[in-house]
Structure formats: structure tokens, C-alpha cells
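Quick log. Single chain, no ligands specified.
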Amino acid sequence: MSTTVLRDHAHGQQMLAVPANAVTEEVVTEEPHPPPTRKRKLEVTNNHNDSGETELLQRQLLEANRKAQEYRQQLMHKEQEAEEYRIKLEAMSQSQANRMNTVT
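-> predicted structure:
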């Protein structure tokens, strides 16, 4: 009994031709396909708990911003004070240097 092997060059598969009275087994292989893409659905919920949590977070954010602004103002005030002291110290240093120059 002779058999003929045929090759499908397009898909790289081998096929076996056998006589009609012989038992044959057929194996079908499929090329893997990527899974279908799914579109994400965004659910908008108007849940009372969510809105209550959002309101709480909004209040906390406002309070944090208020405190930050307060701290910025305090920092600016302290920087102005430091600059005034620096100027006074420089003036005192200059006057002391002038007195030392006039004494010598």
C-alpha cells in the first residue's frame, strides 16, 4: 500500500492521501486568534454615599487650602521680619566699622 503526502505551502500543513477503504483520522488545527477586544463601560452612579464622600473630601480640600494660604502668609511675614533684621544688623555693623575707622 502506497501513500502520498501532500503539503499545503500556504499554511505549512501536511495532508496524507490514503485509499478510501483505509481508516483515517482528521486533525483540524486553527491558528490562534487574539481575544475580541472589549470596550470599557464607565458606570456613573449617583449614589448618595458617593456624593457624601465627595462632599467630605471637598470640605477637607478647602480646609487644607485655607491652612496652606494661612501658612504662606505667615511665612511671608517672617521673611519680611528677617529682611528688616538683616538690614538693621547690616546698619549696625556699618556704624561700628565707621566708629572703628574714626578711632584709629
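The chain is about 55% helix and 10% strand.
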